[in-house]
Amino acid sequence: MKNSYLLSLLVFLTANASSAELVYKTYVNGRYGFSIDYPDYLIPQGEAANGDGQLFLSKDGEAELRVYARACIEEWDTTPAEFLKKAETEKVKEGRVISYRAKGKGFAVVSGTKGKQIYYDKLLTTGNWCTFFQWNYAVSNKEKYDEATRLIANSFKS
Predict the structure, then answer these.
(1) How sure is the predictor about 74, in pLDDT bands with cuts at 50, 70 and 90?
(2) Contact call for residues 103 and 80 (beta carbons, < 8 A)
(3) Fewest C-beta in 10 Å: which of 66, 140, 141, 156?
């Protein structure tokens, strides 16, 4: 009985410690109305002067989240299919390897590596407006940031 109590206490403390470590905050853009959740280890760098978005950086400089909106550009990103096509043609110029791509109604995602960085770019289209987030981090920290990638991507709303 004593051992099972200690084991239960240890499991409880471990679960609470891990969930307490990572806290998410929400950024809501006043100009375009989009929102995104980000882990509290990312530090907001202040909204852009034109109010189109914000940059978030980790203290160690290993992770960067950029989120912004603008008018869609014809034959570039007015549709998810155009966004993916442009990503495919630009990848060689930028030295990117694409390992994941997806599209659906009003969204597209492209992800992969660029040198020693993992990138994850997501587009949301609403009428003539395109909203983006770009999430980059070191390949060596993939395990650390995989969960954040899922949570950030699922929280992104325009």
Answers:
(1) confident
(2) yes
(3) 140
